[in-house]
């Protein structure tokens, strides 16, 4: 969530009309939970964030 959130914020600074769709994968369950919490707090979608090896 951290790097994805920063990328989203940076893109919107460059172009407020841009729409970023993020994708992510985390192997570590604790890191995945932190990522999910961060994204939910910021109102971002977890639709394309996965845990484990895909």
UniProtKB/TrEMBL annotation:
<dbReference type="InterPro" id="IPR029063">
    <property type="entry name" value="SAM-dependent_MTases_sf"/>
</dbReference>
<protein>
    <submittedName>
        <fullName>Uncharacterized protein</fullName>
    </submittedName>
</protein>
């Amino acid at each position: 969530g951290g790097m994805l959130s920063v990328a989203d914020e940076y893109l919107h600074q460059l172009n407020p009309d841009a729409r970023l769709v993020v994708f992510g994968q985390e192997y570590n369950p604790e890191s995945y939970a932190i990522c999910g919490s961060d994204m939910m707090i910021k109102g971002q979608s977890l639709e394309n964030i996965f845990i484990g090896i895909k």
